[in-house]
Amino acid sequence: MDVYSIRKQNLSKAVELAGGTIAGLARAAGISSAYLTQVLSNRTKRNLGAAVARRIESALEMPEGWMDQVDSPPVRISDEGARIARMWDELPEEQKARFAQELATLHRYVSRR
């Protein structure tokens, strides 16, 4: 499945998250509802580009790249969560492992309280 097929599939999820209407999603993301209708139609070959996908993600407060993931669950994260996720992605693997261990220790400590 190519990225355009994935985005089309996730566009249907995005419509539901935006209240169930293409017009509602289009309004929230500042995109033409006619364009989104064409992308969702099986009669046209319109594709959803990366820039529009990012606008939809932003409008729905979804993480960047959500529209490009197969079977991506509709999970919204805060700006702070997105910032932390970007920082995590930039860490070297050994630092990720060390941080994960420390976080697990902290979680066990907090959970006992």
Report on the structure:
There is one protein chain. With 113 residues, this protein is mainly alpha-helical. The chain has two domains: 66 residues, 434 Repressor (Amino-terminal Domain) (Orthogonal Bundle); 34 residues. 65% of the residues lie in helices and 0% in strands. It contains six helices and no strands. α2 packs across α4. The model has no long low-confidence stretch (mean pLDDT 89).
Name the helicity range.
55-70%
Average predicted local confidence, pLDDT: 89
Which overall shape is indicated by the principal axes computed on the Cα atoms?
elongated
CATH class of the largest domain: Mainly Alpha
Instruction: Tally the structural domains.
Output: 2
- The value of Rg in angstroms is 18 Å
Low-confidence stretches: none
- Compressed to H and E, one letter per element, the order equals HHHHHH
Portion in beta strands: under 5%
CATH overall fold name of the largest domain = 434 Repressor (Amino-terminal Domain)
Ends distance: 47 Å
- Give the second-level CATH assignment, the architecture of the largest domain: Orthogonal Bundle
Which structural category do the helix and sheet elements fall into? mainly alpha
Q: What is the total tally of β strands?
A: 0
Mind describing the biggest β-sheet? none
